[in-house]
Amino acid sequence: MSSITAVVLAAFVGYGAAWYFGALEGNFSLLLFLATVVTGLYWLAERFYFLPQRHQAVATLEASAAKRQAELAKMGISQVDDNTSEAKTRLIMQPWWLDWTAGLFPVIVVVFLLRSFLFEPFKIPSGSMIPTLLINDLILVNKFHYGIRLPVLNTKVLDNHSPQRGDVMVFRYPPKPSLDYIKRVVGVPGDEVAYLNKKLTINGKPLAKTPLPDFFDEDALRYAKQFQETNGDRTYRLLNDDDRPAFIPGADDFPFKENCRYSSEGVVCKVPEGHYFMMGDNRDNSLDSRYWGFVPEKNIVGKAFFVWMNFGNLKRIGSFQ
């Protein structure tokens, strides 16, 4: 078993290394699921086979020692050194290959369940959600808010809340579902979303957009115009860049693109059933539904709600709208 276990562990390490160095596209959910299954099988084998075998070996040793002491006692020898303690310790001890499999199962299964059904951590890699979320913010995503989904498959098995306008949502990027994206829900199924001349209108109703003091982007070392916008029951901040044009350059072909009309002023889209229109708060620096289309319900991962750490700025810790 030690040789088989070494091969299994080497496979996990090799997969992780290849993912880290970009030799293949990794899937952490799948990796964690496989680790849970493998360590779970080892845990069951340890619990019902290997551990009873070791206990039996200890019992056999104790019986042999007792028999020897009884024989010596018949010969009048009553003072006998008990030198079986170290042997019993060695017999009952888990071998290394069980330490690294069955021994890790309780931790791995807890992480798997928490990450799959309750909360999952993410790191913000880009500035598309500035000023709400900054680069390197470490956030928590509520995995059950929009319903319970099977891990890896992401198939919904239990309904909960539906995404609402203004929610910050993590989802699988429609052109490449292996990637996770984060944007704000702007339009829900049936909405007509218009973003013309950098003004957002939902079903013919312009959203209130109140000017705020300019925002200083410490990474780009420049100021951007900042506004406050309300969509549904969410009020949040957004940025506009006067140097960027209003039209949408280079929009991809995507499902239901016929629902959208592009012009020099921007875009107008009718959101199809079972889909959502997403935009970044950094409006002129965000590749979102204006470029790659609608997010299908099956791609939803969860609702982002809390910054739990930013090692460069501890003041970032807290909830956000």
From TrEMBL:
Belongs to the peptidase S26 family. Its main location: membrane. Its EC number is 3.4.21.89. It comes from Polaromonas jejuensis. The chain crosses the membrane at residues 28-45, 97-118. It is a single-pass type II membrane protein. It is found in: Membrane. GO terms for molecular function: signal peptidase activity. It holds the Pfam family Peptidase_S26. Keywords: Hydrolase, Membrane, Protease, Transmembrane, Transmembrane helix. Residues 98-309 form the Peptidase S26 domain. It catalyses: Cleavage of hydrophobic, N-terminal signal or leader sequences from secreted and periplasmic proteins. This is Signal peptidase I.
